[in-house]
Amino acid sequence: MNDLPAQGHVHLIAICGVGMAALAGLLQSQGYRVTGSDQNVYPPMSTYLTELGIQVLSGYREEHLKERPELVVVGNAVSRNNPEVQAVLRLGVPYISFPHAIGRFLIVSKRSIVTVGTHGKTTTTALLAWVLAKAGWDPSFFIGGIPVDFDSGFKQGGGTWVVLEGDEYDSAFFDKGPKFLHYRPEKVILTSLEFDHADIYPDLDHLKGAFLRLMEIIPPSGTLLVCNEYGAAKDVAAAARCPVMFYGDGEPRDWQARNVRVHEGRSLFEPFYRSRSEGVVSIGLIGRYNISNALAAYAIGRELGLERGVLVEGLVTFSGVKRRQEVKGEAGGIMVIDDFAHHPTAVQETIEGVRAAYPGRRIWAIFEPRSNTSRRRIFENEFSQTLGRADRIVVAGLYQPEKIPEGDRLSPAKVVQEINRLYGDSRAVFVEKADEISPYVIEEAKSGDVIVVMSNGGFGGVQEKILRALETKMA
């Protein structure tokens, strides 16, 4: 595995995942010949790989290994029984996990800043990477999304630092440890900690255990920045051997965002360090969570020694991340927004952020239960409460329900029923098939509405279908 030749062939199993697709681009940029396979080939990752000229083979088949690559990277959702994995094992082809590949091909000897937590990882990582880039530090980065300013989820920069999004999900079928343990963190931002990934963590205590392992590997010379609004985050931070700083509206507190306001789609706030204001900061993002993400990036920037003016310039010019409150367009006075929210807390924060940014407009929430946790009944009540904060709600059927035991499945119909019971009207409907959502919305939407589509996957292209149908209707 250590003698991978220059221009050698690397094959990625499950290449269309956001992280794996970016890894494919990174490897190609380093001169390797890259191929991959996946059973779920859909935009934006399929489009991204096509634009790079990387061959994507449909499905998982033994013959995809007929050229015998020098190295195979195995995605974390791929099981040992996968036909390509079986071929790799039989042929004796070297294989590694996705996070191992990040350590080997990107981090190498650089110093790592890793963002972890249940919410806000992608945006916070992208913010910090952009701030450091604007400061002239030429950072490397790897982000689980595509920042608009970079138009790629990765970069191999010439600077000292690498900025990484650290996922707590397991690494591979042969490595059940969380991905972030491979990233050799020196500085860590812990944005939040709530129960998630119910397919691999039975409860919050087991999830906290993964983060406790992370605390053990931050060196005493490192730094941990923790959002103080989550009891579980503060619990694990107590185990850190390095200096700890806190941010947010809870206690203890080093950094806080005060005097928050929204003006023309931008958020303005003042970062306070231990009760002392550092002046007004403006950022083109909306919602309380995004202000928290910006505060975290600002605080770490100050910890790294960046001057306030440099940080302000970085934040004010940040353009966001695709699929994170991304405005897809507006037709007939109806706006369509695409968002990645799939946890009840994220759903609530997204809806409230959009409402604050567009006061007086009717807010639609169109939600697909797609993640391993959202497809389970664990948060059935919470989804009813959070989705109900919108004015009109459409809940789709579960994505691949057969992969969740029947007794464990969330019931979209029950979520809708509870929303209508709680709010005393018929604001919510269950539309099982994604293809039927656009016609329903087009019939019911009116000028002034803001339609927020929330899913952590392709959702059958609902976002684009709604916008195209609106444009056709207005033509």
Summarize this structure as a short list of keywords or feature phrases.
Protein-Tyrosine Phosphatase, Chain A, UDP-N-acetylmuramoyl-L-alanine:D-glutamate ligase, six-stranded mixed beta sheet, globular, Rossmann fold, 14 helices, seven-stranded mixed beta sheet, 24 strands, alpha/beta, 3 domains, 475 residues
What is the CATH topology assignment of the largest domain? UDP-N-acetylmuramoyl-L-alanine:D-glutamate ligase
- What is the domain total for the residues? 3
Question: Rg, please?
Answer: 22 Å
Total beta strands? 24
Question: What structural class is derived from the secondary structure elements?
Answer: alpha/beta
The multimeric state of the shown protein is single chain
**Biggest beta sheet summary:** 7 strands, mixed
Terminal-residue CA separation: 58 Å
Q: Identify the CATH architecture of the largest domain.
A: 3-Layer(aba) Sandwich
Average pLDDT figure:
94
Report the CATH superfamily of the largest domain: Mur-like, catalytic domain
According to CATH, what is the class of the largest domain? Alpha Beta
Strand order of the largest sheet: 8-7-9-6-12-13-14
Number of helices, where a helix is a run of at least 4 consecutive DSSP H or I residues: 14
How much of the sequence lies in strands comes to 15-25%
Instruction: Give the % helix.
Output: 25-40%
- Ranges where pLDDT stays below 50 over 5 or more residues in a row are none
